[in-house]
Amino acid sequence: MKTRISIVFICLFISISSALAQTTTNVDFTKKHSPTRATIYSAVLPGLGQAYNKNYWKIPVIYAGFGGLGYGIYFYQSYYNDFRNAYLNEELTVGGNTYTTLEQVRVDRDWYRRNRDLCIIGASAWYLLNILEAYVYANLFDFDVSDDLSFRISPSLIPTANTRFTPGLNLSFSF
User: Fold this and answer.
1) Residues whose CB is less than 8 angstroms from the CB of residue 81 and which lie 6 or more positions away in sequence, other chains included
2) For 32, which DSSP code?
3) pLDDT in tens, 86-128
4) How far apart are the C-alpha atoms of 100 and 88, rounded to whole Å?
């Protein structure tokens, strides 16, 4: 009885160890360039997707755009605050300039608010453009751009339904 149990355990152990010892030979261990990863990286931190794509020169361009738009938001917001406070307090002097009517103060207040809002929209569009650029470049990361592009025209005979051949041209593209 003990020998049967030990034989069963030995057979079970051999079958488990042989199943675990099998290896697959057709596994591709090369790292694929992931557009999803580039998109997520760029969404979390602008420019990180470009770093993942190895486009390091684009990172200063991205941050220069954010810096310019951020300064525009700050500039227009500060003037908007001055004109808003002057309009609420019915003052005609704003930043050393004297206005003749309160309507002129309101017009300038609205102009600075509009430009501030346009800078905010521009910064949002710049952020989305950063993500889109990282995604598109990651999709084209493995694209072959070799110089081996050719176009050849050669004569050929094209078989027809009644076992005859018709002369024609063969166009071949190589890339």
Assistant:
1) none
2) P
3) 999 999 999 889 999 999 999 999 999 999 999 999 999 999 9
4) 16
* 65 in any annotated domain: yes
Rg of the chain (C-alpha set): 35
Per the structure, how many domains does the chain have?
A: 1
What lies within 8 Å, CB to CB, of 94 at 6+ separation is: 82, 83, 86, 105, 108
Between the alpha carbon of residue 158 and those of residues 64, 153, 164, 167, 168, the distances in Å are: 60, 15, 8, 6, 6
Q: Considering the domain boundaries, does residue 61 fall inside one?
A: yes
Place of tokens 């999803």: 36
CA distance to 8, 21, 51, 136, per residue, from 37 (Å): 49, 33, 11, 12
pLDDT at 22 over 60: no
Interior angle at CA 68, CA 62 and CA 70, nearest 5: 100
| Residue 130, number of CB atoms within 10 A of its CB | 25
